[in-house]
Amino acid sequence: MKKIMIYSKHSSSNSFREALNNNAGIIMYYAIFVCGLIFGCTLYNSLGENSYLERAANIILSNNSEKNLAILAVLSLITMLIAITGALSCAGVGLLCAIPGIGGFLYSQIAADLIANNAAKGLGYLCLIILPGSAIMMTAIIALCAESGNISKKLALTNIFSRREEIDFRGYFIKCVIIIVIMLFSILLNYICVKLFSKLF
After folding, report:
1. Residues 30, 23: Cα–Cα separation, whole Å
2. Separation CA 115–CA 109 (nearest Å)
3. I need a labelling partner for 101 at 20 to 30 A (CA). Which of 7, 58, 112, 135 fits?
4. CA–CA separation, 128 vs 132, rounded Å?
5. Residue 13: its pLDDT value, please?
6. What DSSP string describes 68-98?
7. What is the longest distance spanned by two Cα atoms in the chain?
8. pLDDT beyond 60 at 54
9. CA within 13 Å, CB half, 121
10. Interacting residues of 160 by C-beta distance below 8 A, sequence separation 6+
11. What single-letter DSSP state applies at residue 10?
């Protein structure tokens, strides 16, 4: 018996569209993060030397590594609390959108200050010490925002539009715990990078 195989020219486009729909939240938060980076770099360069942004970045970079890691841990905890608060609100998506935007803005100030004042040496410091932990941290934060935004959207559909949406709070909080572990790992990685490469600078 011959097998009949049917190919659709729209199958690849449909799967791509489905992938976009399934990951729309993550794509949106990444886009907001990139916008925060671009806006922060543009603002830093437009204000010129001795601006308040440059002074703030210099203060952060002049702190010892233990103090900066403690500040990063506190900011991570605050971010987690804001994200969970946003998840439990029907209008939490607006609050969640601010998190990656602010994160991108803050990282852009440090990166712009290092490159503007130290050129290649600053770029090396950024790539070896700041970037490894920061990339993992922001990925975890964006994943947290996407999960929280999904819960917030389902709450809005249930409470405002009277639609029956199944909300798995247990699964959400398990994912939150996993993300917390990843964030702590990023802080540990930052500390390791400081100890390994700080003497080069």
Report:
1. 11
2. 10
3. 58
4. 7
5. 61
6. HHHHHHHHHHHHHHHHHHHHTSTTHHHHHHH
7. 80
8. yes
9. 6
10. 90
11. T
Q: What is the pTM of this model?
A: 0.83
Rg (CA), the chain: 21
Of 35, 56, 152, 57, nearest to 102 (Cα)?
35
Least confident of 55-59, 67-71, 141-145: 55-59
Q: How far apart are the first and last CA of the chain?
A: 72
Q: Is the pLDDT of residue 162 over 80?
A: no
- Give pLDDT, residue 140: 94
User: 138-160: b or e for each residue (b if 16 or more CB lie within 10 Å)?
Assistant: bbbbbbbbbbbbbbbbbbbeeee
What's the pLDDT score for residue 178? 94
Query: Is 6 a residue whose pLDDT tops 60?
Result: no
Report which of 63, 62, 38, 71 is spatially closest to residue 137, judged by C-alpha positions.
71
pLDDT at 7: 43
- Contact at 8 Å (CB) between 194 and 126? no
Cα distances (angstroms) measured from residue 7 to each of 1, 11, 12, 18, 111: 19, 8, 10, 18, 49
Sole residue written with tokens 């916008």: 35
